[in-house]
Design brief:
Length: 295
Amino acid sequence: MVMEQITVTIQGRQFHPDTALIQQLLSENPGWGRSRLSVKLCELWDWRGPNGQVKDMACRSLLLRLEKAGRIVLPPRQRKSPNGFRNRSAVWVPHQSDPIAGDLGCLQPIKISRIATGSEQDRLFRCLLCGHHYLGYKNTVGENMKYLIHGRDGHPLACILFGSAAWKSASRDTHIGWSPPVRERNLQYVTNNTRFLILPWVRVPHLASHILSRVARRVSRDWMDKYAHPLYLLESFVDISRYRGTCYQAANWICTGQTTGRTRNDRNRTIQTSRKEVYLYPLARRYRDRLCHET
């Protein structure tokens, strides 16, 4: 009996994977692990990011879904997945936590640092988000950018994290005007401000909107440097049960509507979460045209 072809969507790209090829590679190379297999498949399928690097982590997600669907049998894991370790509570890192108050000018010049994964500042970044953001911090998947903000005395003031844009958002997608196929191709040019934390001992008027404005002026350039493509739009989802979105409004972000109170994992429409306001910030002129471009 011929098995029906399966379609899998990973990071906006539809695959009709040749499962016979995958099993052939494994049978011909019994010493291969999952990582080696995913790299080889990326090379065969020319599955690469804009910076030319193979997207082996995305490919491993594809392989796991095929195995779950009963289409392939993967070799046993050669080592434990690192994700469980990355998502554990962060190790505490010593830092200044004395109250900071006063005028914004007293903190100038404010330093905004792009954080390299695995650095000492990255450990501090994780510590602060895990300890003081209501959503905590988990390992980032896909393209992302982390920033730590310090005052002129070197004391930490805030953290801001950008990650993968929401796959769908009715008010955002209506505002942009793109079709689903175009959205799938161009979503990489949008990033989601998934975490923004002003540390709880910092009480400085206008600091949050100032940081948002400063970061908006550099994030596309940083993205180009790291991932070899620009950004055209920022998005953020503000939980209206907790916040009013004042800093986004003050930084000239556009509120396009509210979510329906569902999550991206709510396939059966049973998960209820608080509604969120959708805020957007354009980074380029004619950003709608750029995001709606067919090629």
